Amino acid sequence: MKKNSAFLRILSLMLVAIAMLLISGCRTVPVRNIENAPIVTTSQAHPDMQKIGDAIIKAGTSLGWKMSQKEPGQIIGKLYVRTHRAEVKIIYNHKNYNILYENSSNLKYNPEKSTIHRQYNNWVKNLELAIQREMVTIQ
Question: PROSITE patterns from the entry (predicted)?
């Protein structure tokens, strides 16, 4: 009798844990925009806008983002992962850059609360790190 109740208790705890994992896996978080991230290069001089844009495009492309120069100082990045799509606007100048939420699909974006599926923020963080790595290679 005690063995059955112990088994049922363990089974119940496992089911609760699985349910919590499933719920937290779909949870939304505040949209993370990167604002005024400094452009750090190995050179003392400010790099020209073309080199900065090229570095941003190279960084995004290396992670699977589709990057397109919208106008000088502005790049649109789109990432397609299975049925999900994330779109960011990257605005930059000689000193800093911003990665801003632009659009998405299948990522549970809520404009009133400015929340989105948590994976979006991971993608943006990875993009930010890739951009930083590319910036230090600018001569």
Answer: PROKAR_LIPOPROTEIN (PS51257)
